[in-house]
Amino acid sequence: MRPNVTLLAPGGSIEMAYAALLAGADAVYVGALGWSRRTAQYELPDGEIREICQLASGMGKEVRVALNTNFSPLEMGLFLEKVDRFAQWGVHGLILTDPGAMFMAKERYPMLRVHVSAGANALNIEDLRFYREIGVDMVVAPCNLTVEEIGEIKRYVDVGMEVFLHSNTCFTYLGKCLMSSYFRYQWKWDEEGKNHFWGSPNRGGYCHRICKARWMMENGERAHLRNDMFLAFSNLPYYLDAGVDCLKIQGREYSIDLISEIVSFYRSLLDELTKKGKEVDMAAYLAQLQEIAKKRDAQRNSRTYTVLQEVVEETPIAV
């Protein structure tokens, strides 16, 4: 098994980031307020990001900041100001979607690692060659890339690959879905001059998880989501064999206790896989994951229901 794979965990708050690092994460990622693909509730103001950088530095660990919305021309100056601050505070990497932003950040701070967000949908070898040429260090693989496809990319492109262990699997191409815009369409400017488009996570708003509602099928049955947790788990040894560099746990919106438990689970599993390879008793770990999955699904389903109710009941649809 490939050693030294980074275990990356969410930091939806200072407390969550600290708990994840204590539980065994090598790094945490946080969202800059108004600049990442979450609501403000799970994003952090710059001052809190600075505190997390100090915490992580004291533990010998890393911080990555998501600024993975698409910027307007009027926002590029604000973006560069944030990059300057984050670089000075010791942030190790930026998760970005906009190619121009990637190029400028890397040109300004060559030692700052730049990650292509999953929202960029970098799906094939030529996509990744382009990103590598503009200085990108890591690419977050969209959830629909298979182990075989990731392995093929690693054979032909010298770029780091990051995959999701836990994620809210999109049924469309992440970053190109406009369904939320049909339910909530509103602009909001903040005091810094950043424009928030509530109808789209691509512009600083939120994905309202329209596709995850239990839609009624033509035959009268309800559609059910697949549980992506077990697909990622079953592929984990093969991800390592394929040369994956970073394993990412998604979930800034989950409880701190749940994130801590998930991180501890994968820390233990990864350490054993590194030592024993495919001799690890995956069935024993599967039993643990099934219990974690119950808690994760309860929190996710509750959140999804709440979000959909808010969208349907409180927000007029733009026409």
User: What name does CATH use for the topology?
Assistant: TIM Barrel
Outline the biggest β-sheet. 8 strands, parallel, barrel
Write down the Rg: 19 Å
The number of distinct structural domains comes to: 1
Low-confidence stretches are 311-319
The 3D shape can be described as globular
Content-based structural category: alpha/beta
Q: How many strands in all?
A: 10
**Strand order across the largest sheet:** 1-2-3-4-5-6-7-10
- Residues in helices, as a percent range: 40-55%
In the CATH hierarchy, what is the superfamily? Aldolase class I
What is the overall pLDDT average? 83
**% residues in beta strands:** 5-15%
CATH architecture: Alpha-Beta Barrel
Q: Short summary of the structure?
A:
This protein has 319 residues and is of the alpha/beta class. It has 9 helices and 10 strands.
Note down, in words, how this protein is organized.
Helices cover 42% and strands 14% of the residues. It is an alpha/beta fold and 319 residues long. The strands form 2 sheets. Strands 1-2-3-4-5-6-7-10 form an 8-stranded parallel beta barrel, surrounded by 6 helices. The model is unreliable at 311-319 (pLDDT under 50). It has helices at residues 14-23, 46-58, 76-89, 99-108, 125-133, 147-156, 228-242, 256-276, 282-314, and strands at residues 6-10, 27-31, 62-67, 93-96, 113-116, 138-140, 160-166, 187-189, 195-197, 246-249. The protein has one domain: TIM Barrel, CATH 3.20.20.
Structural descriptors:
single chain; 319 residues; alpha/beta; TIM Barrel; two-stranded antiparallel ribbon; 9 helices; 10 strands; disordered C terminus
